Amino acid sequence: MAHLLDNPIYNALISNHTQFSGAIEGPMFYQRDIAAFAGMQTYDERSFAKLYQQLPEFFVLFHPAELNIPQQFKLTRKLEMRQFVYDHSFLPKGDDLPIVDLKQDDVPKMIELVNLTQPGPFLINTIALGNYTGIFKDDKLVAMAGHRFHPFNYVEVSAVCCHPDHLGKGYAHAIIREQIKRILASGNIPFLHVKKDNYGAIKLYEKLGFKERTKMNAYVIEKI
């Protein structure tokens, strides 16, 4: 039987993220100002045809298997990733740094940091997914992370990034630790995705206690 994290986007949109969905049934996708992600219960030709009818422009699919992308779509990029899960009930050891909750007014600074570090898509209203926290130095946002997919009792840690001028100061460790703390306090299980060759991030996640669950592919697709 497939694990629900094999299809994290679809399972998030039929459970805890229905309020962010741009669809009521069938292929599911996030509202375009929140996230450019879509998911389907089955990734067959009929489901892709329905998705084509509903979605504009481009979107991203997550799936652990190799998908056959129909000809009406253009596969612009495929990313090979690893999915990690934090399967402990305790908070990892670490220092408590001055971490603040990020607000809508902080979005321009968040987008600036994301554009610099490229952790993944972040749009004008992605912050609505919740629990975005950051570290500021001299009024400059230098590290941040937040929540993204929330399929049933799992919550994804996402948009993890640190300004290159502030690496090696423990900010990424502290910001992820804060995310773990919040997710565990809500009675959920933290998980995350990382590019398979991002060895520095993988080392940090493993140090914090995350364990790899499966390989995951991200398909960036455009309508033709």
Automatic annotation (TrEMBL):
<protein>
    <submittedName>
        <fullName>GNAT family N-acetyltransferase</fullName>
    </submittedName>
</protein>
<dbReference type="InterPro" id="IPR016181">
    <property type="entry name" value="Acyl_CoA_acyltransferase"/>
</dbReference>
<dbReference type="Pfam" id="PF08445">
    <property type="entry name" value="FR47"/>
</dbReference>
<dbReference type="InterPro" id="IPR027365">
    <property type="entry name" value="GNAT_acetyltra_YdfB-like"/>
</dbReference>
<dbReference type="InterPro" id="IPR000182">
    <property type="entry name" value="GNAT_dom"/>
</dbReference>
<dbReference type="InterPro" id="IPR013653">
    <property type="entry name" value="GCN5-like_dom"/>
</dbReference>
<feature type="domain" description="N-acetyltransferase">
    <location>
        <begin position="97"/>
        <end position="224"/>
    </location>
</feature>
